[in-house]
Design goal:
globular; 2 domains
């Protein structure tokens, strides 16, 4: 079976989108895509790529068209992002990337869900208590977007294993919860030439910045000497609204990086204080 035959098969199952602007574009339903994947022995991600290349839209991404465009959606499906941490920030980051159509996610977290996670962590629930966070996340991502290739790594990220964990990624997301591990991640990402999207939360406060190789942003924020073992989250706690917002801002930065568009928060800190209704961006003083 040839590529053209698969394209013709998909066209035969496509339907016009609602409204005049969609009449020239075929939409392919999730069921039709799954049928094609089974018939051709391909992954769902491969079939979605074929559909977009043939000028068709997988129906799940149709509402992305005005912002991302067909080429942008193709780029996301072809991309790999590593998310280090799958807790308060990481869970919402993973969901945002999966729903956006990022084709491959490498998610690293050695922790298991506990009852105190349920006030804020996206994939936490009573049935998941005691289970590995990355395994629960993989199951739930498969339900929201089964085209995503989800690579679960139930390990603690270290300077030794991070190079292997990040080897296929185009962008890395910092969803960790302590400064020492964040500094290690910044250093490894820099050695590998990878941009890093940092996010942190504590109480109603949050921050986001994008770090390129050569930048020392986290070193400037946390220092290199007498680095605190824990962030302010340990004392201030975290209501759910803060990681939801900060994770959304991180996802937006990742999409801008992958698509080569928009404004990157590099050498700047995007700071939020939800209790004071404050959202501002300010420059970091020293040059990278």
């Amino acid at each position: 079976m040839t590529e053209m035959t698969l394209s013709e098969f998909l066209r035969g199952l496509a339907r016009p989108a609602d409204g005049p602007e969609g009449q020239e574009t075929g939409l392919v339903s999730p069921a039709a895509l799954q049928r094609a994947a089974q018939q051709w022995g391909l992954s769902l991600r491969q079939v979605e790529l074929q559909a977009l290349q043939a000028g068709l839209w997988p129906e799940r991404y149709w509402r992305n068209r005005g912002t991302l465009g067909r080429q942008g959606q193709l780029t996301l499906l072809e991309s790999c992002v590593a998310v280090i941490g799958c807790g308060g920030l990481g869970g919402y980051v993973v969901e945002g990337l999966a729903r956006s159509g990022v084709g491959r996610l490498v998610v690293v977290d050695a922790d298991r869900f506990a009852a105190h996670n349920m006030n804020r962590q996206r994939f936490s629930s009573l049935p998941g208590l005691g289970r590995l966070k990355v395994e629960v996340a993989r199951e739930q991502v498969a339900q929201m977007n089964p085209a995503v290739e989800f690579v679960a790594r139930p390990v603690h990220a270290t300077g030794e294993n991070l190079p292997g964990l990040l080897e296929q990624a185009a962008v890395v997301v910092d969803a960790l919860d302590n400064p020492p591990d964040r500094l290690v991640l910044q250093d490894v990402a820099a050695r590998l030439g990878l941009p890093l999207v940092h996010g942190a939360v504590a109480g109603f406060l949050g921050q986001v910045t994008t770090i390129f190789p050569g930048d020392e942003t986290l070193s400037e924020l946390y220092g290199r000497e007498d680095v605190p073992a824990h962030g302010a989250e340990l004392s201030l706690g975290t209501p759910v609204v803060t990681p939801m917002l900060v994770a959304a801002l991180q996802v937006a930065q990742v999409l801008n990086l992958l698509l080569g568009r928009g404004v990157l928060c590099r050498r700047r800190l995007l700071y939020v204080d939800l209790e004071s209704d404050l959202l501002e961006s300010f420059a970091l003083d020293s040059a990278g």
